[in-house]
Design a protein that fits this description.
The complex is a heterodimer of chains A (204) and B (331). In chain A, 78% of the residues lie in helices and 0% in strands. Chain A has helices spanning 15-18, 21-37, 43-60, 64-85, 91-115, 118-127, 132-162, 167-199. In chain A, helix 4 runs antiparallel to helix 5 and helix 6 runs antiparallel to helix 7 (132-162). The longest helix of chain A is centred in the C-terminal third of the chain and has 33 residues, at 167-199. Chain A is globular and about 55 Å long. With 331 residues, chain B is mainly α. Chain B has helices at residues 10-34, 40-54, 71-78, 80-98, 106-132, 136-164, 170-202, 212-236, 238-241, 248-254, 258-271, 279-308, 325-330, and strands at residues 58-59, 65-66. Chain B is globular, with a radius of gyration of 21 Å. Chain B starts with 9 loop residues before the first helix and ends with a helix. In chain B, 50% of the residues are buried. The chains are: A mainly alpha (204), B mainly alpha (331). The interface between A and B is large, with 77 and 75 residues.
């Protein structure tokens, strides 16, 4: 499925891509927490952080257009919450401040996700002794995510080609049936996955 | 409802992170104890399923569209502990892979959508289902009402965290979040109920409770999660709600939150400068609106359940699974 959010990782040869995933993960987290601690009038600090992010982006050799597109894709969520703060006294100051801060954080997370594979992040979690059940769940989720989104796309296409949609309520009903079908198929697939895992020597 | 980075301050991030970590740890240990190894892959695949289902858009009036959140759906289909784990996995992946929901707000998002939503939802579901007599109609009614309650509860927790961080004042955040989510929750309830009804029609055995003992264990789990959720709500919401004419102030005083409430009331007196004069009546109207909304949601849930349940007519048993002759013979 071609979704702007689904192909996040961009393969390039760059110093940022070669860095160990743990360094990038810790670096991004520290950066985001540091942004939180910045005072409300620390505009120079914001400028320094922004320049550092732009340098990292330039080093990673990811096309600027793609980074901008991803940033614009996630920005509306931040904008929606920030608009709420406009409704209070001296709201405009708070609005600008939170928007700048959250844009910096979003930029750093977009950089992280486009230079680091999710499987590498999972590996870091595994070595940091995160609970194995959680890591297994995340790994299986990541592996079957693309398959299931493709499957739901196929089911929707099949439904569209067979039915005339009459009215909004019918669309809701048939979409809900598609979700229910997907759940039934998912639980059947989980049984097969378990059999395959056992056949390959998996132990709890 | 995904809070981005920059909207949550450090104290809220740490507090929510701690509560979410405790809840997730408890869910992990409970799942490890009770879930047979055969069903471990189902957790990961269910998380992928929730993610895929969230991408399916439902048309709402005026060209806008909504989508499923899925907390109550997973709680009804898999149980509360598994739902906490599945929803946490979804949020963690959305945060690190898609930058949807911030890293510092991960604890807050997990508290709202992976702890409050499934726990409140499953609690209401069990309660209504038990009162209703555990038939298909009562299950659907319980599902609808539970999804409505869980979405609204999660949005109130979200408003509390935003207010506690000092980003958006409680007087603005609470009506805005709770008001819009009372409407969004109607959509969530409708989708969840339709999906549960369809799963019951296709594979009723996926919904059956395993045994009485597992149900007992679930009640115990539910009490533990309920305590955790109310601890969080007391910390995030009670300081702001404590000047309301209800019992929350008493709870706060009993639990030793009075000093915190006093500090917070200094803040809220600052806020009251711009709120409407005659704050009492405004609060009272919010309370009345909330009660009316809840009653209306329950009535809607009941009507929906009546519409979706086939009439108990001995001559018409081919109607529900009507498309295939095998469906009626196997049931």
């Amino acid at each position: 499925m071609h979704h702007p959010l689904l192909n996040t990782y961009q393969h390039q040869r760059s110093p940022i891509h070669r860095l160990p995933a743990a360094v990038k993960l810790v670096g991004a987290t520290v950066f985001v927490f540091a942004c939180l601690l910045l005072p409300r009038h620390g505009w120079t600090a914001f400028a320094v952080a922004g320049v550092a992010l732009l340098l990292t982006a330039a080093l990673s050799r990811i096309p600027a257009l793609q980074l901008t597109r991803k940033l614009l894709w996630v920005e509306p969520f931040a904008l929606g919450v920030a608009l709420l703060s406009l409704l209070q006294t001296n709201g405009f100051q708070v609005f600008v401040f939170t928007l700048v801060k959250s844009t910096l954080c979003l930029f750093s997370m977009v950089l992280l996700s486009s230079t680091t594979r999710f499987s590498d992040i999972l590996h870091v979690l595994w070595r940091a002794r995160a609970p194995s059940l959680l890591v297994t769940t995340l790994a299986l989720m990541h592996r079957y995510l693309f398959l299931l989104t493709d499957e739901i796309g196929r089911m929707l296409r099949a439904r569209k080609s067979r039915t005339f949609s009459r009215g909004r309520l019918n669309v809701w009903r048939s979409s809900a049936t598609v979700i229910a079908h997907l759940f039934v198929r998912t639980s059947e697939r989980a049984e097969r996955v378990y059999a395959a895992m056992c056949a390959r020597g998996w132990k709890t | 409802m995904h809070i981005p980075d920059g909207f949550i301050d450090v104290k809220t991030a740490v507090a929510t992170g701690a509560i979410a970590a405790v809840g997730l740890g408890f869910a992990l240990s409970s799942v490890r104890r009770t879930l047979p190894p055969r069903r471990v892959p189902l957790l990961g695949l269910s998380a992928a399923f929730v993610f895929a289902a969230q991408m399916l858009n439902f048309p709402v009036a005026g060209g806008t569209s909504g989508h499923l959140i899925g907390a109550v759906l997973t709680a009804v289909l898999l149980g509360p502990s598994a739902a906490i784990l599945v929803m946490s996995a979804v949020l963690i992946l959305q945060c690190f892979m898609f930058a949807d929901g911030g890293v510092t707000a991960l604890g807050a998002n997990m508290f709202n959508m992976a702890l409050v939503a499934p726990v409140v939802g499953y609690g209401v579901y069990r309660l209504v289902d038990r009162i209703g007599g555990a038939g298909l109609r009562s299950r659907l009614c319980a599902t609808a009402f539970a999804s409505w309650c869980s979405t609204v509860a999660a949005s109130i927790a979200c408003a509390g965290q935003l207010a506690w961080s000092g980003t958006v004042a409680w007087g603005v955040a609470f009506p805005a979040m709770a008001g819009t989510h009372m409407l969004i929750a109607v959509g969530e309830a409708l989708i969840t109920t339709l999906v549960v009804a369809a799963v019951t029609r296709m594979r009723p055995e996926l919904l059956l409770e395993r045994s009485q003992s597992s149900l007992q264990a679930r009640y115990r789990e539910l009490i533990a999660y309920g305590l955790l959720v109310s601890l969080g709500l007391v910390v995030f919401v009670a300081p702001f709600a404590s000047h309301w004419p209800d019992g929350l102030r008493k709870v706060a005083a009993n639990l030793g939150f009075e000093q915190r409430a006093a500090r917070a009331s200094g803040l809220s007196s600052l806020l009251s400068d711009y709120t409407v004069p005659g704050i009492r009546s405004a609060e009272l109207s919010i309370v009345i609106a909330g009660c009316l909304g809840t009653v209306m949601a329950f009535v809607l849930a009941y009507v929906l359940a009546r519409l979706l349940t086939p009439q108990r007519d001995p001559g018409a048993n081919t109607k529900p699974g009507g498309s295939s002759p095998l469906a009626s013979s196997s049931s």
